[in-house]
Amino acid sequence: MQFCKFCRGLVLAVFSSDLCFSNLDLAFRSKHIKYVRKRASRHMKMFKCSSVLQDCIGKQWFKRSGDGDLYLSGNATIKRLQLLRCKCQQAERVSGVTTEGGNGTWFVDSAKTLNLNGAVNSPGVLELGDTQQLTSEKEVLTSNGSVNKEEESLTTNGAVGTGRDASRKASVDPIEEEAWELLRDSVVYYCGSPIGTIAANDPTSSSVLNYDQVFIRDFIPSGIAFLLKGEYDIVRNFLLHTLQLQSWEKTMDCHSPGQGLMPASFKVRTFPLDGDDSATEEVLDPDFGEAAIGRVAPVDSGLWWIILLRAYGKCSGDLSVQERIDVQTGIKMILRLCLADGFDMFPTLLVTDGSCMIDRRMGIHGHPLEIQALFYSALLGAREMLTPEDGSADLLRALNNRLVALSFHIREYYWIDLRKLNEIYRYKTEEYSYDAVNKFNIYPDQVSTSLVEWMPNQGGYLIGNLQPAHMDFRFFSLGNMWSIVSGLATRDQSNAILDLIEAKWSDLVADMPLKICHPALEGQEWQIITGSDPKNTPWSYHNGGSWPTLLWQLTVACIKMNRPEIAARAIEIAEKRLSRDKWPEYYDTKKARFIGKQARLFQTWSIAGYLVAKLLLADPSAARMLVTDEDPELVNAFSCMISSNPRRKRGQNNSKKPFII
Ligand code: GLC
C-alpha cells in the first residue's frame, strides 16, 4: 500500500453505518417522508415575508445584455420597493417564537417576543434602527433577481460614509472596482433588506447545486469587506437572521442535531401566497447539512458567526447587537454545544470529516486544526462579548478552562519543526505510564523521508490533525493562518509559520495563493481516504488545490505579525490572474497553473477575499477587529501547565495541582 508522502503509516478505519441503517431506513421510509413533509411545511411557515409582485412584471420585461445580465427593458432603473411589496414587518423585527398548537411556530410581533429560552425581550431590545443607514439608492435587477445597490450612505449621526468609504472614491484600481461591482451583484435580499451574498454568480455554470445559497463561512470575507467600507447593515442583518435560523429544528433520518448548530447555508425562497396568484412570500430556508452533499454537519458556521459578531461590534462601534438578549442566548447555545461533555479525552473539538471549509471526505475527521483554531477564536470572542450574569458563571468557568487546555494541547502536540520532527523520529513507543513522552503512541515510521526533506531549517507549522497513533502531517493553510490570528499559536510559532510560508513559497503560494493543504493525497491513499472522489483528485479542489479566498486570512496573519510584505507579495501574484480568469473558486495542479476543473467562476469569496486583503493592507490597523492578542491570564495559566508537563519534568514527582481559573 502506498501512502501520502507526509502520512506514511496512516491508520484507517472503515465504517459502514449506511449498511446498518438501511433496514431501519426502509421500514421508516413511507412514514418518514410524510413526517418530513409536514415538518418542512411547518418550517416554511417560520420565516416568511409576503410580497406582491406587480402584475405587469413578467418575463417579457427582461432582456439579456451582452455579458449575460438581465436588465429591465424600457426602465433600467427601478425601485426595488415597486417590485416587491412586503406585507410583513421589517425583517429585523422577526425575532420571536411562540407555541401554536404545540408546533413552536415563529411569529412576527414588534411588541413582546419570546426567545427560545423563554426570556422575554422588551421591544427596545429588538429594535434595529440605531445604526440604520439612510441611503439614496440606484437599483438594477440582475439575472439572479438580486438588486444591485449603489449607495451613498449617510449614517444617522450625519456623517457621510466613513473615512475608508471616502478613500473608495479616490481609489482607481480597476480590479478592485470590478471586485466591488461583482460583490454588490452577489448580494441577496430578504424582504427588501440585504442579508448576505450568494456563493457564486457564475453564468457559465450548467448546474447551480447550492452555489446560489448564502453560505455562512463564505459570507465572512464579504461581511468583513462591507464592514471595512462602513456598510454595516448587511452584516447586522446577516447576524440577526442567521441567529433565527440557529433555533430551527432540523432532522436527518429522524435525528436532530444539537441545539445551537448554525446552518451551513440558507436560501431565500419565493412562493406564491395561498389563494392569491399575484402575491408571493419570501422564506428563509436553511441547510444544516441534511441536504448537503455527503450530509456534513457545518461545525465551523457557529464559530465563524461569533467571530463576525465580534468584528461587527469592533468595527461599527455598535455593541447593541452583541448585547441583545437573543444574541447573548445564541452565543451561549453555540458554546454549550461545543463545550458539552463527551467521551473525548482531548480538549480539542471532536468532529466528523468535512465539517468545515473542506466539506467533503478528505480524512480530516477527528480533531482537525482548522476547527480548533476557529474554536479557540470563538471562545475568546465569546468571553469578550458575554455579559456577566449569575446564570453564566459555570459556562464561563468551563470556557476559561477549555481555552487554557486547548492552547496547551495545540502548542505542545500539534507543533512540528525540524527539531520536533527529529524527536518524533526517535520516539519510543508503547509507553504505558502517566508520564509517557510519546503520549499518543506515534510510530516514528510516520515521519516520511519526503517530510524530512520538505521541512525547512527555519520555520515550522501546526500539523493538520492528531489522533491516537496518528499525526496528520499535512500543512493546512486556514488552520495555520487562523492559529496566528487568534493567538492559538505562540508568537514564536506564528513567526515560524510565516517563515515556513516564505521558505516553501513555490509549494504553498506558487502561481496562485494559497494552497488549501500540502501535499495532496495520491494513489491508493487518495482512493481509500477520499473514496476515490473525482472532485478531490491530487492537486485539485480540497486535495492540494489553491484557493484565492485564503488570501485574506494570510493577510490578517501577516499584519498581526508585522510582516505585511509577505501578503503584499502574494496579492501581487493573485492580481495578475484573478480578474482575467473571472475570479475562480479554486485552481488546480501542483503550481496552481490551471483554473480548477470544476471551479465556479465569479465565486464570491474569491472576490471578497481579495478585496479584504487589499483593504487591510491599505489600512492594517483595521485588522484589529479580527485579531486577538494573548491574554496575560492565559499566558500565566499556560506556563503553569508547561511547568507541570511530564514531558519536561520526566522522572520528577509531579505534585502540582491542575490549574483552575
Ligand atoms: C465548497 C467549499 C465550501 C464552500 C462552498 C460554497 O463546497 O468546499 O467550503 O463553503 O463550496 O462556496
Automatic annotation (TrEMBL):
Keyword Ligase: no
EC number from the UniProt entry: 3.2.1.26
Region (Disordered): 141-170
Enzyme class: hydrolase
Signal peptide location: 1-22
Catalytic activity: Hydrolysis of terminal non-reducing beta-D-fructofuranoside residues in beta-D-fructofuranosides
Keyword Hydrolase attached: yes
Pfam families the record matches: Glyco_hydro_100
InterPro entries: 6-hairpin_glycosidase_sf (IPR008928), 6hp_glycosidase-like_sf (IPR012341), Glyco_hydro_100 (IPR024746)
The entry's keywords: Carbohydrate metabolism, Glycosidase, Hydrolase, Signal
Annotated family: Belongs to the glycosyl hydrolase 100 family.
Summary of the function given for this chain in its UniProt record: Invertase that cleaves sucrose into glucose and fructose.
Name used for this protein in its record: Alkaline/neutral invertase
